[in-house]
Amino acid sequence: MNSAATVLHLRACNFVGGPEHQILRCCAASSLAGEYRQVLASFTADGVGGEGHDLLAAARARGIEAFELRGGGWRDLAAARELERVARRERVRLICAHGYRADLIGSWVARKTGIPCAWFLRGYTGENTKVRAFEHLDRRLLAWPERLVCLSQTQVRQLPRRLAKNRAMVVVNAIERKDEGLNAPAAARAAVLERYPALAAGTQSALLVAIAGRLSPEKGAACFLRAAARVAARVPDARFLIFGEGPMRGRLEASAARRELGERALFAGHVADWTALLPGLDLVVNPSLSEQAPNVVLEAMQAGVPVLATRVGAVAEIGDAEGAEPGLELVEAGNERELADRMQELLADRGRRFELGRRGQARVRAAYAPATQAGQLQALFQQLVPQPAPRPERWPWVSVVVPVRNESLHLGRLLDQLLGQDYPGDRFEVVVADGGSEDATADIIAAYASTHPDRVRGVMNPGRRSSAGRNAGVAAARGEWVVFVDGHCALPGRDWLRGQMAEAEARQARCMSRPQPLQADSAVSWQATIAHVRASRLGHGADSTIYDASARGWVHPGSSGAAYHATVFGQIGGYDEAFDACEDVEFNQRVAQAGMQSWLCPEAMVYYAARSSVGGLWRQMVRYGRGRVRLMRKHPKARSAAQWLPTLWLLWLPTGLAALALGHGTWRLLNAAGLAMYAGAIAAAALALGWRHGARHGLRSPAVYLAIHAGLGAGALRELFQLRPATGRLRLSPNSISRSDPS
Length: 743
Description:
This protein is of the alpha/beta class. It is built from 26 helices and 24 strands.
């Protein structure tokens, strides 16, 4: 079986233009083929030659696997379902979305399947009202994907301030080097005049000026024609070629006729081999009003043809226009007078054109080679789909500690998953600490310990709480590493233990963090709604990493530290058994205070079972609220304003409701505004949740949000006002734990 990770590029298009050629070049990058399998999917409309078919044909002609997603309008829902099937069947590890339609549908499918998504920002066209509306929505949702892929550093700097810049990366457009030889310009010029003989009419030495691209408003072709009319009046030998098709062609041809350009302006339409004609041109103009990194500019510069372009997007960066020897010349977008003057100057100075073309060619070959693009793609893939850490020379001895109480419904499944791990059987053990279960949990532990005496052991947890169970498990563990898993968790696969231990050895880590997403037994249950809400921005702490399945790197241990080298317990002791909740957060706070960071490792991910009812969620949140207060009492530096928001909100809520019913004037207005803001935030979150997961979950979610916020606040108030606050007690003291390799 091919071990390469599958990356899927998603694009909606009506023809194969510059962005599509870049996507095909990315997919065909031979230097990445060993590590990554890049495939393509595109939305299609009925009929050969319709939307998407040309791109799929071009991909297959280059040997790229391509998948058809039949969509359009309401059929995009069916296309999204087909994309989900493709993603699951092909084991896609990353979706690269190119364009607003691919962004929105790709992210929706990525969230459903747990796949990271990267948006390639290729610019916005705004060509009609519908497109402008969707592009506006796309810009508002730039925080959705795991990475934003820009075409230049200029574009990165232009991103909204609300976005974390460390989520943005650059993958440049690339252009392949072509060495046509000394006679190429003469041969290309002859080919141009042979194909378009009208250009030579009335002149012995035509000066050929061209633009190329889609004939849509943002490309600036109308401004170019106005400037061309000015140049034509001053330079009799000037001839103008317009390559490309688009919705504005009819209007542009009428504009050329009104300006009496006649045969001096020729509309060539879409020309597949236009780059072969490039060396025969005297000047290429890129008059765009809005663009990021136009392929036309790169193609002309690679061919050694001088370029005059508008200062939009990253065009100045492409040409290194601020350097001592710029590779192109710039004018302001939409200024037809300046564009005409500069065209005239360049057409009058052959030496200047030659030098500009030479510098442009050198610039593109140095900074925009396919190898540069492939290296940047590889850096993106390594962040979101990293290759497994190398196999260590010696697998560490691991103790998996499972604190349980009344977990008979889930424990057997978890133990089967642990015993089925692809990890040397003589290098790990499972220690189950039972806190006085009243169901069949003890019988399950005894049965597995009897069947697998060398792999499973049961110990008693007289303290009953999870914190005491963790301590009991650590005290009995024999491993060099201790990995904690709760009894109601599920593991993602057989390589779960091997993957995280390989990462631990490769990073020389002493603490490992992990994602801990929630799951449900049924996709339409309240349990599923609770899982979706808890993973949303309003449903958990903003600084938590437990729902980010793609993040990787050194982090504060926080609430997601879950595996530790045994020396950590010898240094800081065990868990504080006064904590009935947040005992792991308190322990990780001491890990951080000891100067340790944690390696956040997606390979270590576990799935937690969400609470199955709003009542169960309420009780859980009350416990969490109490645990937060205990944490802040013990570790004042852990205090933050965000931790107190649910408490302050719950204290204010009766006042706000009373003011709305009984108050008057400004006081009533202020409280009404506060209630409206909260209700609006919940409604927006519910709409977003319903859009991603279904209307059923959107309608239920307000009750879940209220249970989370009110439960945290109620738990904090209960802990604040109890007469005898709990005091910390550690059953495991520092330096009381030592480990040696049991083998």
